[in-house]
Each structure stands twice: as C-alpha cells, then as structure tokens.
Amino acid sequence: MAISSPLLYCFLSLWLGLAVHQLEASHQVYRNLPTYSQLTSSHHHLVNEPYRTGYHFQPPKNWINDPNGPLIYKGIYHFFYQYNPLDAVWGNIVWAHSTSTDLVNWTPHDAAIYPSQPSDINGCWSGSATILPGGKPVMLYTGIDPQNRQVQNLAYPKNLSDPFLREWTKIPQNPLMAPSQANQINASSFRDPTTAWLGPDKKWRVIIGGKTNQTGEAILYRSKDFLNWVKAKQPLHSAEKTGMWECPDFFPVSIHSQNGLDTSKIGPNVKHVFKVSLDNTRREYYTIGTYNIDKDIYIPDKGSVESDSGLRYDYGKFYASKTFFDSSKNRRILWGWINESSTVEDDIKKGWSGLQAIPRTLWLDKSGKQLVQWPVVEIEKLREKEVKLPSSVLKGGSVHEVLGVTAAQADVEITFGISDLKKAEVLDPSWTNPQLLCSQKGASVKGGLGPFGLLVLASKGLKEYTSVFYRIFKDHNKHVVLLCSDQSRSSLNKDNDKTTYGAFVNVDPLHEKLSLRSLIDHSIVESFGGEGKACITARVYPTLAINGDAHLYAFNYGTEDVKITGSACSLKTAKIN
Ligand code: DQQ
Fold first, then answer.
1. Digit-coded pLDDT (tens) for 80-124
2. 5-53+61-375 and 382-571 agree in CATH topology
3. Which of 130, 466, 538, 560 is the most exposed place for a label (fewest CB within 10 A)?
4. What does it catalyze (predicted)?
C-alpha cells in the first residue's frame, strides 16, 4: 500500500529515531518489537528510487541479509531473513517473515523470531527449518546470549492450523547446544545450523559452522528426540586454511534425475553437496562428494577444490545461501543474499540495503561434476511482451539494439552460434583465474571469438552499460569458454564497487549450443551461462540508464561473425512485500 502522508512519514521517522537511541543505550538489545506493519507503513515508493527492484525480493526498507529457514507448509512457501527493523546497516537482527504461493509474489508478516529469551537476547542469527515426521516444521537458529556467546536454539509454530505460521514459540530448554570448556567450541565461531537429517539409526543430525584456528569446520551434533543434542567426536567435514565456515549447507542430489530430494535421503543413486560461506573472503564454494553414514563424515570427490577458487553457485555477488526441498514440486530450491555494491553512506541515504536472488532450482549436472541452476519456472509468469529475435548474424564489431522491451525490468535469453572456431584465441597456460582474465580482457578488448553478449542497463549513446559476454579460447584440442560480467562502465557514480566477475563455463561450443540468460531488474543483473552451468550476479547503479531510459543491446566486438537467436521479455512488477 502506498501511503504518501508526509505527516505520518515524519511521525514514524521520529519514532524510529527515538527507538534507535534507546537501542544504543541498551547495548543493541531489541525489546518491545513493533509489528512489521508499523515498521513498514511509512514506506512510499518514491519516483526517485531507481534502484529498487520490480521482482526481486526485498522489504520496503532497511537492512536485510541471509535467507533463513525456507520451507513449504500446506502449499505455502515461507521465507525468513535476517533483518534490521531500524536501519539500513546490519544490527538488531531479527527474523523477518514473508509468505507466497508462487515464490514470486510475497506477503509480509510480523517478525517471526526476535530477541525474547536469554539465549537470544543479543540477536537472532541464521538458521534452518527441518520438517519433522507428520509434517511439523521446527527452526534451529543461532542466538546471541547475554555473554555474547553463539548458541543454538529451537522455535516451533504456535499454531499448526495457521498455514501462515505467524507465531513462533521458543522452548524453555534453549539453548540446546552451547560452547563450553568441555566441548572446546569457540563461542564466537559457532553458528548457522543446517536443516537436520535423519540417519538409518533413527538419530537426527545437524551441522553448525565453526572453526579451530584457520580450519573451517562443520560441527556435527546428533539427537534422538530433537531436544537433547550430543556433539560428535569429529566434524562432518573440515578444511584447513579456509577460516570460519558460515551458513553451511549439506544435502543429497539425485545422480539420474533433476528432481530434488528430501534432506534425509541416502542411497546408491545419490551424491551429496556440501557448501560453505567463507567469512574471510565473503565468497562461497561447494563440493560434490559422498556421505559415509557409518563414519558420519562427508568426503569430497577426488579433484575437488576446497576453497573459493573451486566451484561456486555464483561467481558474482551471492552469499549466505541456503537450499530447501520443495516437496510439492519435487525440486531443491536455492536462496542467496545479494549485498549492495554501493557505499554505506549511499545505503543509508536510500534507506535500504540487500536483496535476495530469484530462487533457483538446482540439480546435479549429467557429468556428475557440478551443479546446474535455473530460475524457478514461476518467474516466467511475469513475462509479457515477448520480443523474438529472428535468427540473424551479428557481424564482428557490431551492436544491435533489442527494441520493444522494458529494458530495466526484463528476462532475456540469447543463443550464440559459431560456425568457425578456428579464430579462437590461444589460451595462455597462466590464465587460470577467470575473474582476473575477465578484468584484463573487458568488454572493450577485441578478440577473435568474442567478446560477444549483452549490454544491459545501457544508456542511449552507451555512456553507461553493464556487459555480460563470452570469449572462446583454444586450449590444445579443446575449447575453453569464459563468461564475464563487466561492471566497469555500469555507472557514472565513481563510488560503487565495480569489480569485474568471471567464470569458466563447462560447455563445448563445437557440439553444444552456447546460451546466455539474464534477469535484469533496475540495480541487479543475474546471468546464467551454459543453461545454468555458471551464474554471475552483479549489482549496478546507473545514473542515466534508469527506468524508461534503460536500453538493451546484443553486441559482438570479436573479429568473427556470430549468429544469434533468442527472445526478450518485459517482466511485470511482482508483489514484493
Ligand atoms: N550472518 C548472520 C550469521 C551468519 C552471517 C548474522 C552470514 O548467522 O554467519 O546476521 O552472513
């Protein structure tokens, strides 16, 4: 609802201002939690807010970070997230809550979990949902206790007949897991419980992120009743020199099908995925491997790289991600937090910070060596005004405008056909870091095969644009495909972080089609290369290419011609809280 009464706005900002003072005086402890509607009713969509999104999840204002406890219950999707009800910077963290029937349109509810017990009085940090037998959801989450120790708590829905699960109750036994001298857990490195899974011995297992010195650890606990948890002697997994493991995720994937699996599924047709978010670098990585249930350890496949130079869900901005099993459609869905690339000062000025990526379905690639991700199919409901790009040749050195779509809010998919791969540049053996390679060979650096791709959020005359493009290299008998997202020209504002991102995409351009899909939404560009084999998300803040002044182009700055076909759709605005 858009309220435009300046008086009401003044009143609420005054009231919030006062609350901030009280808060500082009380050591960031947040009491007397106002309702969500009280907190957000002062919002009115200003014309002068070019960076707010049309279909990416965000609350009307303030700071958001990690996705928490996603689940489906009685046909309704629940999404919780780390939220600061008072400010556009991190702090006073509660679990905000929204629900949806389609993962696209969202209705806000009051905060679900907020400081109210000693075991979480200094903050309610990240956690996950587990669906207990009989379909009952419970949350395990990290609380910050009066000594600022990180402990694990349990909350459950007060009323299971409410499909919106609006009220959550904390059990008096909290915390269920806490650091101590005996268990040698570091009280400031013990957080973010995963969804629990049930072993064949009828015991529940959960992992919690931790570290010992610079060794990242997935601390394992077991329980018969979900209340009494016993720490296992060894972690489920650990890796040296990776630092603190935040938001671990551990789940099975099917070897033969794209269907998702319940988190407790084990068996011969199943591999496991292990993901962590590295506090040291603010990047994530995952490996694919085997869960040895007898030893209760996870073993990454041979050749796995245990650092953020290994496999990543997303090679741009994407952090603290979490999956859940959608039992209604048999798929596993990934949520991820997309931070800003603007300065804190700008975030405070605009009054908000942080987005969620469009939820992605994910599955194991046919090769068994990586995951594939694709935006949930429901997002296609927002498509309107599809513009077909008839098969045409994009000559070397040319730019072609895609007309007829709202370029600031669009879904574009283009396939590139290369008839002659002979002109591919030879890959230097030292070019092993795709991000570095993309920043050295940005969109304006001519090559043989490439750069070709899209110029998105581009101003007329190309003073501003974000380029998402491919380059193809020759490496002995094979070809290497590089996908880049180059933000260096994305905004005339010099203060933004404009890091160039890059990823190698495991496709063979000789035998497979080479496609690129980008979801463009005012200040975010999510790109999917190789039909979801490599994803790159960027945040950009154009000053000219905003709303109706944004344009979309296909380009080819290589010497060789490239055939293109595809389509672009305007996307309608979703109901985002
Ligand atoms: N964010 C939460 C922590 C988590 C971190 C606090 C990751 O639980 O480790 O807001 O972004």
1. 999 999 999 999 999 999 999 999 999 999 999 999 999 999 999
2. no
3. 560
4. Hydrolysis of terminal non-reducing beta-D-fructofuranoside residues in beta-D-fructofuranosides
- Which residues, at least 6 apart from 433, have a Cβ–Cβ distance to it below 8 Å? 309
Give the catalytic positions in this structure: 66
Enumerate the domain spans of the chain: 5-53+61-375, 382-571
* Whole-number Å distance between alpha carbons of 528 and 206: 32
> Which residues have any ligand 1 atom within 6 Å of their CB?
65-66, 82, 93, 125-126, 142, 191-192, 246-247, 320
Alpha carbon of 277 to ligand 1 centroid (Å): 10
Which of the residue ranges 27-36, 49-58, 323-332, 516-525 would you say has the lowest mean pLDDT?
Answer: 27-36
Cα of 293 from ligand 1 centre, angstroms: 29
For residue 82, the ligand 1 atom closest to its alpha carbon is 10
Alpha helices in 310-415 (DSSP H): 344-350
For the chain, how many residues are written? 577
Distance 126 CA to ligand 1 centre (A): 6
Contact (Cβ atoms closer than 8 angstroms) between residue 540 and residue 427? no
**Hey, whose CA ends up nearest to atom 5 of ligand 1?**
246
For residue 337, which atom of ligand 1 is closest to its CA? 11
Alpha carbons 417 and 559: distance in angstroms, whole number: 14
Q: The domain 5-53+61-375: what is its CATH number?
A: 2.115.10.20
Specify the DSSP class assigned to residue 466: E
List the CATH code of the domain at 382-571: 2.60.120.560
pLDDT in tens, 156-215: 999 999 999 999 999 999 999 999 999 999 999 999 999 999 999 999 999 999 999 999
